[in-house]
Amino acid sequence: MDGTSSTAPPAAPADPGAGPVDAVAATGVDRAFGGVQALRDASFAARPGEIHALAGENGAGKSTMIKVLCGLIRADRGTVEILGEPVGRLAGPAARQALGMATTFQELSLMPDLSVAENLLLQHPPRGRFGLVRRRQLVPTAHLLLERLGAEHIDPAATTGDLTVAQRQVVELVRVLATEPRVLILDEPTAALAEQQVAWLAGHMRRLRDAGCCVVFTSHRWREIEALADRVTVFRNGTRVDTRDRLSEAEAVRLMSGRILAGSYPTIAPVEQTDAALRVDGLSGPTLRDVSFELRRGEILGIGGLAGQGQRDLFLTLFGARRARAGSIEVAGRPARIRRPADAIRAGIGIAYVPEDRKAEGLLLPMSVRDNLTLATLERISTAGFVRRRAEREAVAAMVAQLSIRADRPATRPVGTLSGGNQQKVLMGRWLLTEADVLLLYDVTRGVDAATKHDLYALVARLAAAGKAVLLYSSETEEIAHLCHRVLVLREGRITAELPGPVGDAERIVAAAMKELVPHA
Ligand SMILES: Nc1ncnc2c1ncn2[C@@H]1O[C@H](COP(=O)(O)OP(=O)(O)OP(=O)(O)O)[C@@H](O)[C@H]1O
Fold first, then answer.
1. Which of 64, 135, 359, 502 could anchor a disulfide with 38, C-beta 3.0 to 4.6 Å?
2. Does residue 410 have its Cβ closer than 6 Å to ligand 1?
3. Which Pfam families does the record match to this protein (predicted)?
4. Residue 106 burial (CB count, 10 A)
5. Are 71 and 249 a contacting pair, CB within 8 Å?
6. Are 294 and 369 found together in one domain?
7. What is the overall mean pLDDT for the chain?
8. Residues 229-244: pLDDT tens digits?
9. One domain for residues 334 and 374
């Protein structure tokens, strides 16, 4: 869509179908989960030598289509062909992998207790004579692999569970890229990545495409689709709406949701209140160095910078999930001792943290949407230890409506059966229900569709206008540039610049992040 579409083979029909040129083709696929019809007469086709984006709202059926294509789940009806082979002959994922198909899913598949090297080489470990695995070769072999694919900054000896979500995603990607696939399918590969890592992945996707590989990916970031995709297929309500080689964002949103959005970002009301909701003085920790700032009521303060400069630690420390080595925190003018999350949530302090990793840090997947939403507010909706069901029902219904969470029967529906973006919204809803005064929003629009992002931006602006203090980090720097009254740039754990907002142009934040260290005023 950036003019590179000429590299995709021309002359094929625009509609999916069983054309011989297709590398993957699904036709007339139905798939239900219990009472939920995830796919309905859905078709999708992509060719060798093209990058094909699969776009759609949260819950539109993209992941389900990908799982059908790669053999992880079976279609109730319909046909699938991979590289010209009818899928009947390629029962499970292994047979498709043998043909050269590689897939990453939204759920990371790495084993957290194993090292990066073990995860990378699990399937094909280096072997010596007699076929014995050469354990001592694991780390050097993995290092070479990481280096070859431009990810040498990741330590192959590290325990995978100790890596950040972004680093784990890079390892997951290295694992599939290393197979030099003929069909590469990536379900939201960039949701966890920062800008530099996205550029790294884009390079690999283009390289594979140019070598004739069929690359399919999903994303909720239109900029990426525009820059990378030769064609886009839009899904809505479990079925294909259209396939195009050119599509504007506004048109895409209309096709995906039936909505016409007026501008992407809301206007931010000026900060009128002067009292500090949060004052941080000299905070230091393993990755933080002498961080001091004030966050006022009604203010949205952005934390910008390149990936991994201490942003996550700052949020976790303020929430009590990481210990600070030095420094102090004041909430509403009073010193606050926050040693664990329970201290942060306590009445009188009221700090809520909405994390990026909804699975590891947030949701209890087998529990219902209702119970996940009310987990942090049980006290407020209980009397003498009994949950007041009516109050609970009302609070849940209001939050489901406010965030457009797509979940029928929230009281019984396990949150793990919602689409990824809807899970993220449940997590956001949980903390909004606490009515905390200070909101630590860490990459909250990750994996959320365009129309809902728009709603979340408006919600954040409304919360601030109502006097909440918001600290905001996003792996999409553009969000920080447009949504914040002020932006602090972190570099190597230190605040190195302060930009008045809205900054508008994300490049200015990136430029400030790359500049030499300057003393913070
Ligand atoms: N295992 C499951 N059990 C029950 N329902 C499911 C299951 N997997 C998916 N669904 C439902 O199927 C529908 C389609 O989900 P899917 O994950 O394919 O959407 P998606 O387009 O990938 O969304 P997102 O952008 O949020 O990842 C959703 O309503 C979802 O709740």
1. 64
2. no
3. ABC_tran
4. 20
5. no
6. no
7. 86
8. 999 999 999 999 999 9
9. no
